[in-house]
Specification:
Layout lengths: L11 H12 L18 H5 L5 E4 L12 H14 L3 E4 L5 H12 L5 H6 L10 H6 L7 H8 L9 H4 L9 H24 L4 E5 L17 H9 L3 E8 L14 H12 L7 E8 L4 H11 L13
């Protein structure tokens, strides 16, 4: 997986301006001689042509809770009101791509991750992952079996995915990389078949959780695009009303129970925001930023945080 710059700005226009300046006159090469000198495509960003955009509102691996799914539909209606065409998009099995992600991420038995965290204070939101990096690989199989014991208070088939066997040899790693390429081809094939310009979806399955919330499994709505190198951006679109907390089926899964508790805990003060993720094809950041900008007027969440 390749690292990339993540820019945070108060508005999509600010983010677009920064991205534009980063690639202007191949400025990025002054800081990274290995960067691909791709110029800013102003025609994609400024275009008024109508787009075909895919959307999905939930994934079986980690279903959306509260108002999160409805916010995607709100964004769908907003884009349709601007003349764009929205079509359902079917995602691959999230259990499968989370498994591929784990195999590649800890192929070195977490040595790199542990080195990055050396002498660092570990936040509560990543403490479970940090602890898991200290578990010997040979114990993973036992932990997975324990997590899959139905009826037990720690049962979680979602968490068990993270204790699948990692790569044990260079050939295992190459196999995992090949699986990643197959996954990328599968998504691109459907993307091209539907003639899409972008896809919108949730960022995580719940609204923004409290800062001290316990760690939840990595979001299947977000990590997939990191894994296959598709550009994505996030804009706030609304907030949680707290009116749809009852009736959620947690399947007896501890991970879903923790996520639902984080959702309930977030309702106490100001309504937590819910973001929408906009995803584009590789090297189409300008299209992502254009859709972000077009959704901005429809955001009903108002933050009291001011960025200087």
């Amino acid at each position: 997986m390749s690292p990339s710059v993540g820019i945070i700005g108060q508005t999509p226009t600010i983010v677009a301006t920064v991205v534009n300046k980063m690639v202007e006159s191949q400025r990025q090469l002054d800081y990274d001689s290995m960067a691909i000198p791709i110029p800013w495509n102003s025609s994609d960003f400024e275009s008024t042509s109508k787009l075909r955009i895919g959307y999905f509102t939930s994934l079986p691996y980690f279903p959306t809770m509260g108002d999160s799914g409805d916010i995607v539909l709100k964004a769908k209606e907003a884009l349709e009101s601007q003349g764009h065409t929205l079509v359902p998009f079917e995602m691959p099995d999230a259990y499968d791509y989370i498994r591929i992600l784990v195999k590649i991420s800890i192929a070195d038995h977490s040595r790199h991750v542990k080195e990055c965290w050396k002498d660092e204070e570990v936040a509560d939101c990543v403490k479970f992952f940090w602890i898991s990096t200290k578990i010997p690989v040979w114990i993973y199989k036992l932990v997975r079996k324990i997590l899959l014991l139905k009826g037990m208070p720690f049962y979680s088939k979602r968490t068990a995915v993270f204790f699948n066997p990692s790569c044990r040899s260079s050939s295992d790693l190459w196999d995992a990389i090949a699986e990643k390429k197959e996954l990328q081809d599968q998504i691109l094939s459907q993307w091209n078949q539907l003639k899409l310009d972008a896809v919108i979806c949730n960022v995580i399955s719940v609204p923004a959780p409290p800062l001290n919330a316990p760690e939840l499994p990595p979001s299947p709505y977000a990590v997939i695009w990191n894994l296959i190198d598709f550009p994505a951006g996030v804009v706030p679109m609304g907030s949680e009303s707290g009116t749809k907390l009852r009736g959620f089926d947690d399947e007896g899964d501890l991970a879903l129970q923790m996520a639902h508790k984080a959702l309930r805990d977030s309702i106490g003060g100001a309504p937590p925001p819910i973001g929408i993720q906009i995803v584009g094809k590789p090297l189409k950041e300008e299209v992502v930023l254009r859709v972000m900008k077009e959704l901005e007027p429809f955001n009903t969440f108002k933050s009291n945080v001011k960025l200087n």
